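To the wet lab folks,

You asked to see what we're planning to order before we commit. Fair enough. Below is the target structure as tokens, and below that is the sequence we designed to fit it. If anything looks off to you, flag it before the synthesis order goes out.
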């Protein structure tokens, strides 16, 4: 039985969210969403989080489940819906996670994974360790629900996994920045001016020989304005000493972390760090040319270096290559803010804002 009121059920028909890809739509379950929920609280950094959100959205749509998104509970530690809002129609409602909703989820008797019954949102490390491979985990069994098209029968499904790839690009195609954030971000982009180079360096969990990388591109940026975006303050400082004929600037500050990640860092304000990451992402995409290292790697537990490209860097490059998408992300910005970054004063595409705050009686 659904714990939500009749008033909420009537409101579900008016809720809208992100459209799903055709691969999911063609196998959608015609049953109602009443009493069927998917809670998404993914782990990982920004790119991983956006990828997992997109996967969860698709699964919820395919199997007619109310989609509850609460990125506060994942490694990101911040509500991503403070920054983004869905602007397309969807066949299922999407709810913004809250303590009020979570209290109801803990009362469910039908939960997958089953060992989470009664403790869905309890921050108990032993529970996290015991969790079996969950939905959409690309590091788990080959036959995940998405691959095998399984509609798991439990009333509440909980997804907490990480995993990157190109799916974050599909997420960005279905959302816009909230107006206040869009206006503030546009001001930062406008301050940079129209002609600057942008460099992204990842050097925490993923490593980069940034001195070698900077040496390779020094002639390409010589004499211009250079925006440096990095999770490592040492890389930023090195850029200022290597690009001596260029004006090196930052759009966000990076704390000294001695190689530790920005995301999931208990010593940092999660909301501020997530916002700063998105500012960097968008600032990279407005550059006249973007550079990202092709020689990054991470060190496995056995000490072996494994080459890897930063998902964040790939996402920035995708955004850089898609001006129409950038225009859409700023669809809700004020006319003055839009004009300041080179767009028309009013977005002329279709917008259908999601209502993310369901009425609910306790």
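Sequence we intend to order:
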């Amino acid at each position: 039985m659904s714990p939500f009121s009749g008033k909420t059920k009537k409101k579900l028909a008016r809720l809208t969210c992100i459209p799903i890809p055709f691969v999911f739509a063609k196998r959608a379950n015609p049953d109602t969403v009443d009493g069927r929920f998917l809670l998404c609280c993914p782990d990982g950094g920004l790119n991983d989080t956006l990828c997992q959100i997109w996967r969860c959205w698709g699964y919820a749509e395919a199997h007619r489940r109310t989609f509850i998104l609460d990125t506060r509970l994942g490694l990101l530690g911040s509500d991503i819906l403070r920054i983004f809002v869905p602007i397309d129609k969807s066949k299922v409602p999407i709810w913004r996670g809250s303590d009020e909703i979570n209290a109801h989820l803990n009362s469910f008797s039908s939960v997958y994974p089953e060992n989470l019954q009664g403790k869905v949102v309890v921050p108990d490390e032993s529970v996290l360790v015991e969790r079996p491979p969950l939905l959409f985990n690309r590091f788990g069994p080959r036959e995940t629900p998405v691959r095998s098209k399984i509609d798991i029968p439990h009333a509440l499904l909980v997804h907490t996994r990480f995993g990157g790839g190109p799916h974050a690009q599909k997420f960005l195609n279905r959302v816009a920045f909230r107006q206040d954030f869009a206006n503030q971000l546009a001001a930062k982009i406008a301050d940079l001016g129209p002609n600057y180079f942008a460099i992204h360096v990842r050097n925490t969990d993923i490593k980069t020989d940034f001195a070698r990388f900077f040496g390779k591109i020094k002639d390409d940026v010589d004499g211009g304005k250079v925006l440096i975006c990095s999770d490592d303050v040492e890389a930023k400082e090195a850029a200022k000493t290597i690009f001596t004929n260029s004006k090196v600037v930052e759009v966000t500050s990076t704390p000294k972390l001695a190689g530790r990640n920005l995301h999931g860092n208990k010593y940092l304000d999660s909301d501020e760090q997530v916002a700063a990451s998105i500012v960097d992402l968008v600032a990279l995409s407005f550059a006249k040319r973007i550079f990202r290292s092709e020689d990054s790697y991470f060190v496995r537990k056995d000490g072996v270096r494994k080459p890897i490209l930063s998902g964040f860097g790939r996402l920035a490059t995708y955004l850089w290559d898609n001006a129409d998408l950038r225009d859409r992300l700023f669809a809700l910005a004020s006319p003055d803010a839009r004009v300041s970054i080179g767009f028309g004063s009013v977005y002329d595409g279709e917008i259908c804002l999601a209502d993310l705050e369901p009425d609910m009686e306790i």
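Structural context that might help your review: Residues 1-32, 124-148 have pLDDT under 50 and may be disordered. Residues 46-62 form the longest helix (17 residues).

Thanks,
Computational group
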